[in-house]
Amino acid sequence: MGARHIRDVSKYLNFPLYSNARVFIISFPEVSAGASIEYRLRLRRSQLVNKKDFTAAYPLQAQDPVIAADFTLVAPRGRQVYFKAVNGQYNSFGAKLEPLQAQEADQQVYRWQFKAIPQIIPEANMPPLAEVNPAILASTFGSWQEVYVWWRDLSKDKIQADGAIKEKVRELLKAAPAEKDKAAAIYNFCAREIRYVAVEYGQAGYEPHPAADIFRNKYGDCKDKAVLLVTMLREAGLKSWLALIPAKGAYGLQEDFPALPFNHAIAALQQGGRIIFLDPTAETSAFGDLPSGDQDRQVLLFGDDGYTIMATPLYPAGHNLLRQGLRIKAASDGSISARKENYTFGFYDQAQRYWLTYTQPELIREELNERIQEVSIGAKLLNYRIDNLSDLNLPVVLSYDFSGPEYFTSAGDAWIMPQLSRQDYGLAAKDARRYDLDLQILDSKENNFEITIPQDYGVEYLPEDISAESPWMDIKINYAHRRPKIFFSEKTTLKKTRIRPEEYPEFKQFFQKLAKKAKQRIVLKRKK
Asked: Quick one: angle between helices 163-173 and 222-235, nearest 10?
């Protein structure tokens, strides 16, 4: 491979705060099926994170099979390096995770050699690779106190409010008399008005910018936005601190292994005798809410006099609620007029708000027009409405009206309604799993349906109600007929975020049994 196939480019164009971040793009124009790629990478660090320490992670598996791999770590003799192997339960190929050690001149050498490492075969809804790929973690940090002192010194002087920040805080607090309202107003400003620009490498990947610079430029990365949020909360007289977090997808914080697994920074607020974690990078997340990747993670909180290792909350199912309502009026010719309403909370509100905020209205209309085809082929979208889109304090409500030429399946003088249950039965499609079934969050879904049927039709068959409980989820389905309307409701409550491979067969059996019951249809028949 020649130099013409390697390009050195800036990672962040048009953002002068981060002009020192560079990346290499390497092309393999001659590669073909069956080819083996051999490469050697030497990582040199011209500046250690605190001028003396480093951390590293070496994952064994990749998306492709590895014929042979050598991993060598060289440190000055006498420099203590700590190692920890993680995800050993997935080391089914017998790789030796303990290093071979040797001394060469004034250096201490640690070496691993691997042969015939199988590829990771992706599986739908599997956990992140950092949780299933055997890996070797290395660190020279001897305690979490060392990590605390290092990053505290990098960040503490950045939490300073200048005149512009003080003026903005006063402005925000005018309409927020209560303490909770004060914090929410400041959080909403930082989340919505400060643009996010990611920086992950070099000194800029560790050291935040001064709050005054972030406020003036109106953009920053996660630690910049967290620094500005903490600065403004403190200016408002509230107790707040920075926290480093390895969000989902990164190696988790291990209390017995001080290192730098962090890929994100958030803020912590003390309010009402408890700690509330805030992520201003999640610009569509409401005050007191967290993205799914921040939930149930160990964090390092940088207090005034020391660090605390804490866990972020895993919100209960009712916190992440998707409530959908569909009202249909059917005519004697089978055509319909309908109204759909979507209420979203928690995780679903974050996703819905992001989509509606950053999608052009014409594309929203096109997407909604595609959705209503699932109700009636040839349906026409009449209008749509979005409420509370710019107010993080209220859930987004999306409603739309449409009409359709047909809804029922004709069978002689009978009409058969579509299946009303909306479960994702694809979750149990596999016979067995290699990895956990990762459902990510606890959630609750409510599906409410009503249809007004024509006067010349009656109900021939109404399915029985269903109530199913399991260790993984609870499902309730109810049918009712009160002329001239038919009502259907379905509520699903998720009770676990992970289903282990050994319990998956029982879960599959439960889900398939439920699917057979839920696929029954309502049948109408023309009156004679």
From this structure: 70
